[in-house]
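User: Can you predict the 3D structure for this chain?
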Amino acid sequence: MTTNISHLAEVHPDAKIAPDVRIGPFCRVGPNVSLGAGTILDNNVSISGHTTMGKGNRCFPGVVIGAEPQDVSYKGSPTEVRIGDENVFRECVTVNRGTEK
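Assistant: Here is the predicted structure, written as structure tokens:
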């Protein structure tokens, strides 16, 4: 199966996308993102920062993963998000990067 990316999605050329990933319309995938085989991003999903997702993950509409933490003490440290296999992120879930303390 080949990668299926909507012509309405914005995927950075440096992102690492497995061959059978599906990316729906109005999704944004940043340069430091890795998406494992069988991952599905429905519409309006944003994956940014240093984010690695394993195989078979599913992101429903409105999901945001890898954005800067919502912590006022965050000063730009190079934190990351690592997600394993076979996870489901339902509508409008947010998973931010960590903050050093």
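The domain at 4-69+80-95 is CATH 2.160.10.10 (UDP N-Acetylglucosamine Acyltransferase; domain 1). The radius of gyration is 13 Å.
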